[in-house]
Amino acid sequence: MRLTNLDMDALRSFVAGIDAGSFAQAADRLGRSTSAVSAQLKKLEEQAGTALVRKSGRGLTLTDGGEVLLSYARRLLNLNDEAMSAVRGAELEGWIRLGIQEDFGETVLPQVLGRFARAHPRVRIEGRIARNSELCEKIASGHLDLALAWDDGTASASERIASLPLCWLGASAEEPVWRADGNEPLPLAALEAPCLLRTIACDHLDRQGIAWRIAFISPSLGGLWAATAAGLGIALRTPMGRPPAVRVLDPMAHGLPQLPSLGLRLFRSGKGPNPIGDHLATIIRQALRETLPTDWMPRPQNAG
Fold it and tell me: Where does the HTH lysR-type domain lie (predicted)?
């Protein structure tokens, strides 16, 4: 059986069109004409032996085959880009400063540091695990080159690289310390202010008319996990890094407010072009795609 080699440029146009929500917009981003991108899509469908998109109203949506190929296309492009980054950046020298949210310190950070060190052995990377407010401040002051941090609501859809569900958390070993039909205020375990998630928790409790009190304050995420596991209070976080001793509480079952998702953003300092930063950003995005559940990543939009 003759093997078919998928065209990398066609794959890139395919993924860009789905991510942009329009193959016309993808053509602009890629610096190609719309007809050229359409020709690449047709070529890709011929190579795959199946239709990849179909008409849906005024736009296009992925077929079953298109959804399968999109997943593989992202992985192929990531591997291609990592390989080219390693080859072209083999001679890169210098240093870069990376900041990362506490929640990702034990999951994403080891992958990122290992891959980057192997690809760019002559670049010294300075890593910092910190809270969101500190990371944003250091990006603004130029003390960090890149920071993986929570979106404070100012990022556009294209700037968000993931959306993680927020959830109420309690101790796994016992019943929650608060009942909606009781007379006591909800005991909240939270990080020291300023804290984006603490503000979200208080705002949602206030909107639902639930009285609350701060029962435990921690300067670090590790302390917050410990207090929640001990049953000292209910916390609000994403499931990222949640220890086994802490469980997710069903809002409906416990009379708690429904919660939105929280965007994750890759912040960059405004110091101009930074080839080292570009390579590190590519590795971070790839590590997130491999670590986070698919439904936390940006969903393909209908393309037209």
Answer: 6-63
